[in-house]
Amino acid sequence: MSFPAILVRDLKKSYGQKAAVDGVDLEVPCGSFFGFLGPNGAGKSTTIRMLTGLIPADSGSIEILGMRLPEQELEIKRRIGLVPDESLLFDRLTGAEFLEFVGRMYGLERPTAIGRARDLLDLFQLQVDRKIIGEYSKGMRKRVAMAASLIHHPDLFLMDEPFEGVDAVGARLMKDILIDQVRRGATIFLTSHVLEVVERLCDRVAIINDGKIVTSGTLEELRAGGESLEDAFVRIVGAWQPMERLGWL
After folding, report:
1. Using CA atoms, how far apart are residues 199 and 74, in angstroms rounded to an integer?
2. Cβ atoms 60, 167 nearer than 8 A
3. Which long-range contacts (CB under 8 A, 24 or more apart) does 68-73 make?
4. Which of 130, 48, 45 is nearest to 96 (CA)?
5. Residue whose C-alpha is closest to residue 85's, from 135, 46, 128
6. Which tens digits make up the pLDDT trace of 193-237?
7. What is the pTM of this model?
8. Nearest residue to 154 (alpha-carbon basis) of 213, 82, 69
9. DSSP H stretches of helix in 72-213
10. Which residues are CB-neighbours of 200 under 8 A, at least 6 positions away?
11. In this prediction, what percent of the chain has a pLDDT beyond 90?
């Protein structure tokens, strides 16, 4: 595509006197696996919520897949898949019912939605008979949320801590699925506190701290000198300090 998957300029969002996002500039190339990193409270989730139109920006501009928010919000939402930090699922539905509902909301014909829901349940190993989502473990909820983000075959995925609470087998399955999506040309925008996951999956990374982008580039550029992503992250955000040892511990 001739345009970035995400293009953000001078994005700002404040809550009271606190600037959660403070003049963010961000460009995510189409077809990239992009990691969006930062300490707790740095502005990652607020940024994703603005990218999805869940909350309005105070100022700045957002373009998603060449379309502007909020002017083309409905068309943008048709072409993105979202895995939020909080699993906003319908607890009284089964996994199959929820996925069929999501597919129908994205405009799929009912037979197509049912067929894709069945395929995704098999793919994510979620065939649990008539068990409702309210009885799912946290890891199962993350898996069904990711399945829901896939059902309409989106061009861009926005994922906020998608592997949180997922066991090693489920995480490996989810990673393989995401890698396949990038291979077919989709773009993935991912936040995660597990830097080993980001290091294994992502080809580009941006780091936000105190609402501002402090660095952005390829993994190789961030890990100059052969350091790990964790070492680079701690160095860039300036968070490291010698540990105070407790005499009784």
Report:
1. 33
2. no
3. none
4. 130
5. 46
6. 888 889 999 999 999 999 999 999 998 888 877 788 988 898 888
7. 0.91
8. 82
9. 73-78, 95-105, 110-123, 138-150, 168-183, 195-201
10. 175
11. 69
